């Protein structure tokens, strides 16, 4: 395997792992706002890594620019949709998750 193929494999695997981590955050985090944050950040980074891996293998600048354009549009759409979901959650008065007694106790020990 060439160094380029190894780098592409690493970037593709890292991108896929970021998608998995974002999905895990969607399941594990306690409230709507942290779920949105985990999903949008991890998915944008995962897609960026995958696009970078694909750009390393393109033969024309036009195709590389198209891939970057797709990534940019997805980032804009992700930010807007995350903002709209958070705005609607705020409008419906969905509360933030409050720290548990254990977390409050740990915070008081740190001070």
UniProtKB/TrEMBL annotation:
Keywords: Membrane, Transmembrane, Transmembrane helix. One of its GO terms (molecular function) is sodium:proton antiporter activity. InterPro entries: PhaG_MnhG_YufB. The chain crosses the membrane at residues 6-27, 47-74. Coiled coil: none annotated. It comes from the Bacteria. This is Multiple resistance and pH homeostasis protein G. The lineage of its organism: Bacteria, Pseudomonadati, Pseudomonadota, Gammaproteobacteria, Oceanospirillales.
């Amino acid at each position: 395997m060439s160094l380029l193929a190894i780098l592409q494999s690493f970037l593709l695997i890292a991108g896929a792992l970021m998608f998995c981590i974002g999905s895990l955050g969607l399941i594990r985090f306690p409230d709507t706002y942290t779920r949105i944050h985990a999903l949008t950040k991890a998915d944008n980074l995962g897609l960026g890594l995958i696009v970078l891996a694909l750009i390393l293998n393109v033969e024309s600048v036009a195709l590389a620019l198209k891939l970057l354009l797709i990534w940019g549009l997805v980032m804009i759409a992700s930010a807007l949709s995350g903002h709209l979901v958070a705005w609607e959650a705020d409008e419906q008065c969905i509360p933030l998750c409050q720290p548990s007694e254990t977390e409050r106790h740990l915070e008081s020990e740190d001070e």
